[in-house]
Specification:
This protein is mainly alpha-helical. The chain contains 16 helices and two strands. A hairpin with a 2-residue loop joins strand 1 (57-58) and strand 2 (61-62). Helix 3 (65-78) runs antiparallel to helix 4 (83-95).
């Protein structure tokens, strides 16, 4: 979740040259009614509160978040239509983890200014975090329609498509992401997932390998690539990925179970049994009785298969030759 908030903040900075627009209303017109004069005074006070918040904003962050938040709230109370104050407060609410309140501010911004691209992107991120991919995609699509160079709009819409099972659409968006930013490791990883779901295993391995070059110690990528290798029968490659994963996280019994299966796929039943023994020990330490039972059965199967492999006689082979063998002539 912290990563999503950072994405919002970084994208907001890239999508706008400044943090605030002009906040002060034009000078008072002569001949105002009492109600008009009061309204203008409130607007001026709101603009002044927004200016005070703006003075606390340096190098992409507030020097005092709580004081800035109070000034922004004061500005909004005085003038509920003040777009800049609402959007800036929504960013602070996101940082505080108050997503529902942030969404209220973002929705209000979009009512006043429907083409506010930063607010639309932020709405998409909040909806994505809530698991509402339909609404998230609606927002990301609006962002892309306004500016098709925003990398994260494509990346997050692609992630939503993955979650919705629309893997071809996901691949399209991740490819657009990578066209803009070839070093986007998450796009490679998630495009790999989409390719795997569609049965394009070699493409999946290519994408996951690219993701590994950008982050060689990512457990999720290692485990996913190992799983794809298992699907296509490349057990040695799978074992390499699972072994590396077990070195990075030595307390996950599921990793050792997969390593065991990869070794068994190569006919290395002793190595498979060792890995399964390790998985069993870790599962017992967690008191995971279901896993313990499964690993006991796995170990028994390896013992049985190893014994069967020893008893099976190897077929006799003769050296291959391109020349015909002359039969001995009778004397």
């Amino acid at each position: 979740m912290r990563n999503l908030v950072l994405i919002v903040l970084m994208c907001a900075a890239l999508m706008t040259a400044g943090c605030f627009g002009s906040s002060r209303p034009p000078g008072a017109r002569p001949g105002l009614t009492a109600q008009e004069a009061q309204s203008q005074q409130r607007e001026a006070a709101a603009a002044d509160a927004l200016d005070k918040a703006r003075q606390l904003y340096h190098d992409g962050e507030y020097l005092d978040v709580d004081v800035a938040f109070d000034y922004l709230s004061e500005a909004i109370e005085l003038d509920p239509t003040l777009v800049d104050a609402r959007y800036q407060r929504s960013m602070l609410l996101l940082e505080k983890g108050r997503f529902d309140e942030a969404l209220v501010d973002v929705e209000q911004v979009l009512k006043v200014k429907p083409d506010h691209i930063q607010a639309q992107f932020t709405r998409g991120v909040i909806m994505y975090q809530r698991g509402n991919c339909v609404e998230a995609n609606r927002s990301f699509s609006k962002v892309i329609n306004q500016d098709d160079n925003i990398t994260e709009a494509f990346a997050l819409r692609g992630a939503c498509y993955n979650n919705m099972g629309r893997y071809k659409d996901a691949i399209h968006d991740f490819s657009k992401t990578l066209a803009i930013n070839p070093a986007h490791k998450d796009a490679y990883y998630k495009r790999g997932l989409a390719n795997m779901q569609l049965g394009f295993n070699l493409r999946a391995i290519h994408d996951l390998t690219q993701a590994m070059t950008l982050d060689s110690e990512n457990i999720e990528t290692l485990m996913t690539r190992g799983t794809v290798y298992m699907k296509i029968g490349q057990f040695d490659q799978a074992a390499g990925d699972f072994k590396r994963a077990s070195e990075l996280i030595s307390t996950d019994h599921a990793i050792y179970a997969l390593l065991a299966e990869a070794n068994a796929g190569m006919g290395k039943f002793q190595e498979a049994q060792k890995a399964a023994d390790k998985a069993l020990i870790l599962a017992r330490a967690e008191r995971n009785e279901r896993a313990v039972s499964a690993y006991k059965e796995l170990i028994a199967s390896y013992v049985s298969r190893a014994a069967a492999a020893k008893e099976t006689p190897k077929p006799k082979t003769t050296p291959a030759t391109d020349k015909p063998v002359d039969k001995p002539k009778p004397e």
